[in-house]
Amino acid sequence: MTRLRRAVPGAIIAMVAASLCAGPQAAADQPAADQGCAWQAELSPRTVGQVNFAYPDTGAWYWILPYQVRPGMTITATGQYPDSRYISFNTYDARFSSFSNGGVSSALPDYLIAPDAGSVNPWQRPGGGGTYTVTIGSDRTAANALPLAPEGESAGVGFLIYREYLPSGGASSVRLPQARITDDTGSRTLGGCVGGGSPLLASALSALGATAANLPPATADNLEFRRVSGAGAFPNADNAYLVATLTPPGDDKVVVVRGKAPVAPAGTGPTVWPPGASADVRYFSLCANLSTLPGPVVLNPAADGSTDNGCRSDRETLLDADRDYTYVLGTEAQRARIEAIPGATFVPLSSAHPTAQEAILLRNMLPASDFRQGVQSVPVNGTPAQAAEIMGPYPRATVCALAAVLDRTC
Questions:
Q1: How many Cα atoms sit within 13 Å of 293 on the Cβ side?
Q2: Which of 30, 73, 204, 382 has the most CB atoms around it within 10 Å of its CB?
Q3: Is 305 exposed, middle or buried (0-12, 13-18, 19+ CB in 10 A)?
Q4: Which sign, positive or negative, has the C-alpha torsion 100, 240, 278, 393?
């Protein structure tokens, strides 16, 4: 644990340690946040070097707005549909969990976000530039209603998270929704203040590391993939995960993961959903992470001076004519030889921790209703055999000598 802590800022490690001792309920004991500003934390590819825990996917961008629940309180989020693969709004309780209230779910994916009058939701029909209004409160009839807190709770802590996957223009294209709070003190629009911080935000960030233990204990390698309940705090209801654990093999060996990929949309813009016959899932990825808390994604210095992260989204995954993938997990020193293998997608193992166990996560997002071979169809915490039976050409991991992969004997 001591060595792994160097990958995460000291202040955040302190918060993780406090959460491990006090538990998630500690958030409920924090004083009210200064709600003069919104979206106080950004977790994304551009911040992963500073905030890297809870098994992040570097295709995902998300922002956290912590709030103190009050009777009659409403948060209104207004914005413009972005040119991105996916967006969603989610509210979470003081235990950093999804919930429902009066039959209303705390998760709202893009294709269910009704547009404002005269606007178009591009996940409902082709078009762009439309606007939306999401209402977080007790009014279940409001436009795009999300519950503020679980049934029977009129005080405590909550979190609103806005997610965006694969924004077409990267950081320059992101336009965060405007947030407005109405409560017994009046109504006010919150300014943006990413990185502003608050006690509530500190609790949220600590939980992202401390509850990453949803994954299997880091005790023994298990190269067989099975479904787990989630990849950390603030679960995304639209994602499901398979996980395998391994220790880098060394001796010029690599780990090869083969399987059949679901069909995902080709671009980074919105796709009408449900997709008909055009796609199986909205998004998939494979990521290599250190399996010891706080569960950071692999980040290596690359030969060209850039940073190579351990995630490969569907857009970065090479497929053969049958839509089969071959991920080859190896060291940066092996990268050039791996990338010379036809159809191989290189995934880096950690340079800083070459003997540490890693967790390999395969994500599926939003399967089409008629796609039965996705991770969502696999029983949670079931066996690898169940996953293989349901998924058909199920992902399989093998340790091979790199020379054997090069000459196609492994």
A1: 20
A2: 204
A3: exposed
A4: negative
pLDDT digit string, tens, across residues 49-102: 888 877 889 999 989 999 999 989 999 999 999 999 999 999 999 888 899 999
Q: How many residues does the chain have?
A: 410
- The SS3 of residue 190 is strand
Maximal CA-CA distance, the chain: 70
Which residues are within 8 A (CB) of 356 and not within 5 positions of it... i.e. 6 or more apart? Answer: 3, 4, 247, 248, 290, 291, 292, 350
Q: What is the 3-state secondary structure (H, E, C) of 201-253?
A: HHHHHHHHHHHHHHCCCCCCCEEEEEEECCCCCCCCCCEEEEEEEECCCCCCE
**Residue pointed to by tokens 């706080």:** 294
Are the beta carbons of 286 and 257 closer than 8 angstroms?
yes
pLDDT digits (tens, 9 = 90+) for 373-394: 999 999 998 999 999 999 999 9
pLDDT tens by residue, 173-213:
788 999 999 988 889 998 777 655 555 565 556 555 555 54
Closest CA relative to residue 284, chosen from 263, 255, 306, 253: 263
Four-residue CA torsion sign, 223, 229, 235, 237: positive
Which tokens go with 35?
Answer: 């709600």
Sheet strands side by side (includes 107-109):
41-43, 60-69, 156-167, 84-92, 107-109
Q: CA-CA distance, 209 to 125, in Å (whole number)?
A: 38
Count CB atoms within 10 A of the CB of residue 195.
12
The distance from CA 75 to its chain's CA centroid, rounded to whole angstroms, is 24
pLDDT of res. 211: 52
For 21-53, b/e burial (b = at least 16 CB within 10 A) is eeebebbbebeebebebbbbbbbbbebbeebbb
Taking residue 398's Cβ as centre, other Cβ atoms within 10 Å add up to: 13
User: Which tokens go with 111?
Assistant: 């294709």
In terms of DSSP H, where are the helices of 240-353? 335-339
Residue predicted with more confidence, 1 or 317 = 317
Name the DSSP letter for residue 51: S
Q: Which candidate, 387, 276, 257, 262, places its Cα nearest to that of 323?
A: 262
Cα gap 237→330, rounded to integer Å = 31
Please give the Cα distance from 377 to 371 (Å, whole number): 9
Judged by DSSP in three states, 89 sits in: strand
